[in-house]
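dumping the sequnces here before i forget
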Amino acid sequence: MMELTPQEPKATLLVVDDMPANIHLLATSLLEEYEILVATSGEDALELIQDRLPDLILLDVIMPGMTGHEVCQRLKKDPRTQGIPIIFITGQNEESDEIEGLKLGAVDYITKPFSLPIVMARIRTHLELKHYRDLLENLSYLDGLTGIPNRRRFTEHLDFVWSQAQRQRTPVAAILMDVDHFKAFNDNYGHQAGDECLTCVAKAVANTERRTTSLVARYGGEEFICIVPLLDLQEAAGLAERLRMSVVALALPHGFSSAASHVSISLGVASKVPKVGESWSALLEQADEALYKAKQTGRNRAFLAECV
Ligand SMILES: [Mg+2]
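..and the predicted 3d for all of it:
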């Protein structure tokens, strides 16, 4: 079994039970290993979770007011909370209740009176499984070569940012980037050097734009994209220049480029306030046309969409 290393923060458990004595018993045993949150009703538990997401929930089934099963159903419906493992704890040991709880999406079921070492072991197992699930989910959003967000992550981010901008009538900027004469680089220096070049460029551009609402992703082969909400075209042009300079500053020699003696990028810059019902592909088309112009006019430069 995986041991959490000491430098990792303690996992947070939420214990929900209408009997304070039951909470006390569990909480005192778990306190050394975990951060403990407590609630004495289903309603309180749901309210508490609004402020702080626990890593696992120990949930009493029989409570006055909202039952544990109802709490579980609510949590499974909300995308923010549906991944939190829930272990039911109850005094009834009827098989039908156990099946009902598991059908609702609980990961486990513990019947009172319980053995503390077994409860502890099950908690550890389910936290470990959650840890690996989270890890896998993160990996599925990262580009395998460069380690920056991949196209799937980019699409989800732009969906979110675009619909928000649509409601608020605010702009979204897109900067499409392409490594100049990358094929010649690969052909002459080899694929290994080509991969290293892409990784360096990816890190340079990703480190240049770090606002939490922004995203820099690998868009395709040697193409990268940067999405920034609330940025108009002139501001986006300023950012594009910083992105371009971040790659120039790498000073990676490229003896087979007509654009520069070093690796460089061309950039297409667009910014748009989305109209109602308009898809974000309009924004990307503008950025793509601008990128084409940047390449046509000599590369290692940014071109703005309004001039297309
Ligand atoms: Mg109870």
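Residues 1-6 have pLDDT under 50 and may be disordered.
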